[in-house]
What does this fold into?
Amino acid sequence: MSSSDMVWRARLVCRLSLRDFLVVYPVRVFLSSMLPQALMQVLFLVLLGRMLHLGDDTFLMTGALAQVMVGETVIAVADVLVDDKDSGTMPSLRRGVIPVGMVAALRAWVHGAHGLVLLVCCLLVDSLLLGSPGLILRVLPLLPLYVLMALSSLGLGLAGAAVATGRRSDVLVGNLLNTVIMLGSGVLVSLGHPGGWLGALTELLPITHGLAAVREFIAGRSDFGDVGWEFVVALGWFGVMTAVLRIQSVRARRTGFDEFA
It folds into this structure.
């Protein structure tokens, strides 16, 4: 298959995923339910941080924005693989030209985009409600770093979904991963440089390095090292997702046991 055919197929997957998403979550649902929930979540996290004196508004807002995005890229993204299990389409995808891992990643882009849309809306609205309009000009230019964090968290979300979907525990695993990120990635509490297993865990989590880079750039200091590490973490988790799906495919062919059947 030529590269042009591969590009055409990839664009088709992306376009179909967008149409499917808009059918399930039309604009009226976004405006009446999903957006108000995200706005309230960011407000709650920032006000909680203020009450507990966890940091200034810049520190709290940058973390809260990342957290509201993670709700889409880690929890909701499991729908990509859950739909395949419920519809029984995984065996057909395995016989397709595009690898299953690539199909899952291409279909997941809409969840990353949705998370970023929620993030921008929360930044524009909640900054005004909190009396800190200056946050908009400080954070908005750093949106590409949040795009990178969306990619890394999508990788983790898909990896978790690949492990959990066959056992019908995708909701549990997604929420557990979301909690681990909130507690271990410096969303509201700066962890410094912990050692041992805790330090290793935080280094492997999405958001950790991206948030550190955002806060350093806002403070006027360049931090391209953390940007590079966030990219490495993204590649690592997408690699884990691809490996898990590959192992499941091989096991299904050899034993006849298919977790997505």
